[in-house]
Amino acid sequence: NTPYAPAPRERKAVWRVFPVPAAPLKRMAARLQHIGATEGLRSDRHALADLCAQADGDIRSCLMTLQFLKRSQQPVTSRSVAESHVGLKDQTKALFPVWEDLFHAKGDRSRYLKLLAQGPQPSPGDARSLAATKCHTGFLHNLRQVEAHPEHDRLLEGCFEHYLRIRYADSEGRRTAQCADWYAWAD
Predict the structure, then answer these.
(1) CA angle 47, 54, 142 (to 5 degrees)
(2) How far apart are CA 33 and CA 182, in angstroms?
(3) What is the 3-state secondary structure (H, E, C) of the chain?
(4) pLDDT of residue 90
(5) pLDDT score, position 25
(6) Engineered SS bond to 36: which of 30, 41, 98, 179, CB 3.0-4.6 Å?
């Protein structure tokens, strides 16, 4: 519950805000795995960690998604989490956290781009397909944030302003040229 929402402004004068740090995603995933085992739901801890990351640490969203997957008789896999839109809140982040997520990916972006460059995906049981699914989850999370943000122009302007400040190894300038092409296409 955000204290900056417009609905509870009248009661804001009597509020007392207690900042509570977010639970670590590994701990949340372990707790969700315990709940799933109690309810008879087959799950993978990596998929549950992806679910926690996709829900931005919101335990209620995670539980709702698990409930939906159990009802539909699906095991909880990274692919089912990536394709699931159930339990996600209809909320937007401020510009700075979205830029932070875009520019400081957690190591998935380079693996995802390498897999994307390799061509079509193999069969679902293949190890490369599993790696692509894990990368796909992080990419989808960023894509959903960008699509859901109401200020596309300001978001794009901030990306254009800051993409040259990112440190990366590209002696030939191909990445910079690709970024410039995408920005030209977006205009």
Answers:
(1) 120
(2) 40
(3) CCCCCCCCHHHHHHCCCCCCCCCCHHHHHHHHHHHHHHHCCCECHHHHHHHHHHCCCCHHHHHHHHHHHHHCCCCECHHHHHHCCCCCCCCCCCHHHHHHHHHCCCCHHHHHHHHHHCCCCCCCCCHHHHHHHHHHHHHHHHHHHHHHCCCHHHHHHHHHHHHHHCCCCCCCCHHHHHHHHHHHHHC
(4) 55
(5) 87
(6) 41
pLDDT digits (tens, 9 = 90+) for 82-139: 777 665 665 567 777 888 888 776 655 555 555 555 555 554 445 445 455 555 666 7
In degrees and rounded to multiples of 5, residue 159 shows phi and psi of: -65, -45
Contact 46, 67 (CB under 8 A): no
Residue 107: HSE in the Cβ half-sphere, 13 Å Cα cutoff = 2
> Mean pLDDT, the chain, as a whole number?
76
Which CATH number is associated with domain 1-91? Answer: 1.10.8.60
Q: What are the Cα distances from residue 109, in Å, to 66, 122, 128, 163?
A: 26, 20, 15, 15
| CATH 1.10.8.60 in the chain, residue ranges | 1-91
pLDDT for the residue numbered 20:
80
What pLDDT score was predicted for residue 132?
A: 53
How crowded is residue 72: how many other Cβ atoms within 10 Å of its Cβ? 10
